Structure to design on (320 residues):
């Protein structure tokens, strides 16, 4: 597979309003789509991104109002990175996070880059990573109306961290099936344990997986503050159907072709049980909304439009 990088990442929240407040007002991301979980339209699916929600910039959340707290552990997507333009931007963010009483570890080094590990209001594990020396997949463009300084704004998803008990089988899928290549290793700044780095496409911060191999952890119990799945970029629908054929040929169980309206997808679990998605770069979020008004009203894919009245009655309004 010739994947283009990270497409999006989907996590869980128990409170949509607090989630919007944190990611738009503190982190300054744009809500590019307010929609529902297509598999359960009674709950929100919120998309944050750059100015238009370009592929590779999308951090999304399913709202599960009664979700218990995530119990961190193995077989998990354990940390989500968000890219900022440079080291100067990190210094701005360190000050801003402290001003808003956001738990963070300050600026540390990770794989030759400066980063800030932090947590959101539900202990979602995040990292702000500097693109100072990035030579791979380019970032997006921060929203000019952001509540954070646009020149220092978040420009996309960075390296995604996986924690697994066994590397060999996952590495085989990444390298022999998905086209990733092993890039290097580093010692984690807090655990001191080795982290193995894989990259795809043009490489760089927008196309890496960082693998933590831990045999000393229980399996994660997913809840609020946890991550549901990570998606990787595929050029178009024709290409994703080719990839689907490849998955079927090797006997990799999968969802089959899924039309998410804003992109086309296929889902499968890698050998350690982590849910992967392949998603097309288009059609994009301006398909059903004007670019200047993305995320302002509830957007529904056509197959849910006839249920709009019932869906809107079920959802609690979000103010922003």
């Amino acid at each position: 597979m010739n994947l283009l990088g990270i497409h999006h990442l989907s996590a869980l929240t128990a409170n949509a309003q607090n989630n919007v407040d944190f990611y738009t007002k503190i982190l300054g991301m744009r809500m590019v789509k307010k929609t529902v979980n297509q598999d359960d339209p009674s709950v929100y699916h919120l998309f944050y991104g750059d100015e238009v929600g370009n592929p590779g910039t999308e951090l999304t959340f399913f709202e599960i109002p009664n979700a218990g707290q995530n119990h961190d552990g193995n077989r998990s997507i354990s940390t989500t990175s968000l890219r900022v333009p440079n080291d100067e931007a990190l210094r701005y963010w360190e000050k801003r996070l402290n001003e808003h009483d956001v738990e963070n570890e300050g600026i540390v080094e990770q794989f030759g880059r400066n980063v800030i590990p932090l947590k959101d209001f539900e202990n979602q594990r995040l990292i702000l990573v500097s693109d100072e020396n990035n030579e791979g997949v380019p970032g997006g463009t921060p929203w000019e109306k952001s509540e954070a300084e646009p020149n220092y704004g978040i420009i996309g998803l960075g390296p995604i961290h996986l924690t697994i008990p066994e590397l060999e089988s996952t590495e085989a899928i990444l390298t022999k099936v998905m086209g990733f290549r092993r890039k290097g290793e580093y010692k984690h700044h807090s655990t001191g344990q080795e982290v193995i780095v894989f990259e795809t496409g043009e490489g760089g911060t927008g196309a890496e997986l960082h693998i933590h191999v831990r045999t000393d952890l229980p399996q994660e119990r997913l809840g609020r503050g946890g991550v549901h799945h990570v998606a990787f970029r595929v050029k178009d629908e024709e290409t994703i159907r080719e990839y689907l054929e490849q998955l079927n040929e090797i006997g990799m169980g999968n969802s089959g072709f899924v039309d998410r309206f804003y992109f086309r997808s296929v889902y499968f679990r890698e050998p350690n049980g982590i849910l992967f998605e392949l998603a097309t770069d288009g059609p994009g979020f301006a398909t059903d909304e004007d670019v200047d008004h993305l995320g302002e009203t509830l957007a529904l894919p056509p197959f849910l439009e006839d249920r709009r009245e019932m869906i809107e009655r079920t959802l609690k309004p979000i103010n922003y």
